[in-house]
Amino acid sequence: MRVFLTVPPALKSHMQIPDLGLAYLATALRKQNHSVTILQAEKHSNHDDFSRALQEFRPDVLGIKTFSLEIASIRTCTEIARKLFPDLVIVLGGPHMSVIPSEESMAFFKEADFGVRGEGEIAFPKLLEVLESGSGQFEGIPGLIRRTENGIETHPSYFHRQLDDFDFPAWDLIDPRNYKDRWYFWSPEYPGAPILTSRGCPYRCTFCAQNVVNGKIIRRRSLERVLEEMELLMTRYGVVHFDFIDDNFLMDPKYVQRLCEAILARGWKVRWNCCGARLDYLDKELVKLMDKAGCNVISVGFESGSQRVLDYMRKGIDKEVIRQKARLITSNTSIRIMGLFILGFPTETESETRQTIRFILDLPLFLVSINTYIVMPGCEEYDRLIASGEIKPMDGSNIGLDEHVYAPRGMSLRRLGYLYNLAFFRFFLRPLTLYRILRYSWRRIPHFVDKALRKLIWKSAY
User: Fold this and answer.
1) What class does CATH assign to 175-456?
2) 366-377: per-residue pLDDT in tens?
3) How large is the average pLDDT for residues 2-16?
């Protein structure tokens, strides 16, 4: 069968990297001799290219990766596809389908025939096998969502333990050399590529649904397969920079140590970042080894400068310990730290928001990503806010990275906007920060200017 996989036009988000999820799925489908193409349309401001590519490929099956930020765009994609090809099979997967009740999601996406919750590498090929055979035997397909005469049927998700079974992503469909305009803000090296060493998250942070999307158990690829993939990317695509985008890259220090030693033993002159890092797993010896092996930036979810708020989030970290770990890194290595922060978290007071701002300015950070609390469906905190009547359900029109829809009780959106701008510009207008941007991330200056201008336009959905 001819399968068209896509990320929809991103009308509300602003960054594009090679999509590993779709590429892993393409590999699984190719094993069953399906013809697959991928269109990542995040950088498109409308659906014209999507429509044109769909007509050129003429697929039997359309698979769309869903994000809560882009559900309006996704629904438009399904409507365009159904109009162009009335008999097309439309399948939705991705994070939004994994965290939203199936009845709700299938009611919103009226043109969708099926959905998949959780990982699709096993479910999607099995679904196509049933459709090709005409057997109608959908039982046993993990995570499948389908319409029946009796309503919506949902199968339990399944998270495969042996990640090496999935082989490499279909890199020929997401060539890293084609993503130079929208690469990570802190990565001047080109070309670069994201890579996964593990999936899963055992933590229970109330603002995050990753343990629902990827499972609660950490499943790790063998080091040998990770190294083979890195070598393939370097030799075939000229990749000189990697981003390890695991949810918990540093959770297994021994694994990280072995990875660094292997990079050094091979004499690779590569640079790399790691995301989703918790600093409580680090010690001086490991960070020095990471530095020697080419680690460039560690992206850390500090989230808040208030210990009470951190405890309420169930982050499971001690603010002062993390401060000490950050200073240990910057005083002993050339590794830079990017901090991730949330302002205006539920129950947060203005005093606590200002604690976070002071924390941001006190930490030895290279860059920061600051957001007000994004009301994201599927998270525990979202459910609590809905139940208490503090917010209305999100329908896609009132949720976005630059559409600030929530301020905690006792604080207005206008006041939170002021505090946000205070944090953003106090950090980025410091001479040392500006110097670092010019020196290390000059490719991303247009992105930074665009981001700064958007932050000055404070939007409210209410």
Assistant:
1) alpha beta
2) 989 899 998 888
3) 79
